[in-house]
Design a protein that fits this description.
- By secondary structure, this protein is mainly alpha-helical.
- It folds into two domains: about 70 residues, no CATH class; about 90 residues, no CATH class.
- Helix content is about 65%, strand content about 5%.
- The protein is built from nine helices and two strands; from the N terminus they run αββαααααααα.
- The chain has a two-stranded antiparallel sheet with strand order 1-2.
- The chain is elongated, with a radius of gyration of 23 Å.
């Protein structure tokens, strides 16, 4: 979209103080908007689709979905803030799925302006592992030279352990 806007030329409307965009790529913009509109409709479950079926633009659909599913209510903030501290990986869950889920939790918290520092993220990842990873956690935390863990490094170590 930015590329298309960059290719537009800002022109002055004669005898007025108004400007307009002269875009040769306006058709491309409309095609992209139509594709986004169609893809959103195809991706939504029927019960969700019914909430946006009357929306005419992608922005209206997106704003509606954001309002419904990215609630910034106090209840939602409290629930999301406690979730990483109570979240546990089961023995049957793959490490990859678990790491992706915990990253999603961190992303949701960031959306609500609730940041967890890098070291805290790594600690929460370790805390969420099942008891079968206790020896790995001990080895990892004993071999670190500082008291600072990096989430991606911890995640890579856990993935290596799963692949053994």
């Amino acid at each position: 979209m930015i590329k298309i806007i960059d290719e537009c030329e800002i022109k002055h409307q004669p005898n007025t103080e108004m400007f307009f965009l002269d875009c040769d790529n306006l058709i491309t913009w409309n095609e992209m908007d139509d594709n986004a509109f169609t893809n959103i409709h195809l991706a939504l479950a029927d019960e969700v689709l019914s909430t946006v079926v009357e929306k005419k633009t992608v922005k209206e659909i997106w704003d509606t979905l954001t309002k419904l599913y990215e609630s910034k209510s106090l209840h939602n903030k409290i629930f999301l803030k406690q979730r990483p501290y109570t979240f546990r990986m089961t023995e049957t869950t793959s490490v990859t799925d678990h790491i992706n889920t915990i990253r999603t939790l961190f992303s949701q918290l960031t959306t609500l302006s609730q940041q967890i520092e890098e070291n805290g993220r790594a600690e929460l990842l370790l805390q969420s592992l099942p008891n079968s990873y206790d020896q790995l956690i001990i080895n990892l935390t004993n071999n670190i030279l500082s008291n600072y863990l990096v989430f991606d490094d911890v995640a890579a170590t856990i993935l290596e352990e799963e692949n053994r």
